[in-house]
Please model this.
Amino acid sequence: MWMRTLGQTSIEISALGLGTVKIGRNQGVKYPKSFSIPDDKAALALIDQASNLGINLIDTAPAYGNSELRLGNLLQNRRNQWVICSKVGEEFENGKSSFNFSPEHTQFSVERSLNRLKTDVIDIVLVHSDGNDLDIINNFGTLDALAELKKKGLIRAFGMSTKTVAGGIAAAEKGDVVMASYNLSYQDELPVLDYSRENNKGVLLKKALASGHLPECEDPLEASLKLVFGHRGVSSAIIGTINPRHLETNILTAQRLLN
Model:
C-alpha cells in the first residue's frame, strides 16, 4: 500500500517521504558528492513534483540549516497537502551541531518551528538524538515534554530519531513513532522495526538508500526498496534528494513494488 496509517495515530502518510536537509544545509553532511542548495524556484518545483507523484510526508529539522524557514514560505499555499515531520534537540549553527534535550528547550524549539513553518500544528515531532538514546529518554524528560505539547494540540504525534536498538525500542514504547536506520548495508536496528510492528507503532526510516552510498548490485535502488518495504513494520522511508530525475525514479520504483 502506498498510503498507510502511522502506527496508532490517525495520520495517513505516503510510503516515501521527502527529506529536506539539502534545501537548508550543505555543510557537515555525509553524502558521496557535494551539492549546491537549490533556489526557491527549484525547491518549490521539487516539492510540487513530489506532491504530484503521491508524496505527502515532508521531513525537516532545526538542524537542517534554514530548511524550516524555507518550507514555511514554500508551503504557504500547500500546507494542507503535507504531513510535516520536524525535530527537537539538535541545533546547527556556524557549521557545528550542538544538543539540548531539556524540557524547556524542547518547548522553545517546537514553538520556534511552528513560527518558522508558519503553521498552527506540526504533525510529527521527533527528538534528534546525539546517540545517547537511553540517557535522553531516561534522564532528560524530552519525550514527556513532547507528550505535553501533544496534549496542548501543538503537535499531533511524537517520538524519537534514534541510533541504538535499545533506544529505538524504548522510544517506540513511550511515543507514537520512531525513526530508525535500515538499508542493504546496515540492518542492526531490525529489532526496532520488529518491536514497532508487534506493538503497532509508527516507523520512519532514515538512510534507506544509505545516504547515496549504495552497494554494487544489479539494481541497488530496487534492491534497497524491496528490503525496506519487505518489512511490514515500516511506515515510510524518508528520501532526501534535490534531483528531480532521482525523485521520480525513487517514487515510481517504490509504487511499482507496492502495487
Notes: The chain has one domain: 3-258. The first helix runs from residue 40 to 52. The longest strand covers residues 122-128.
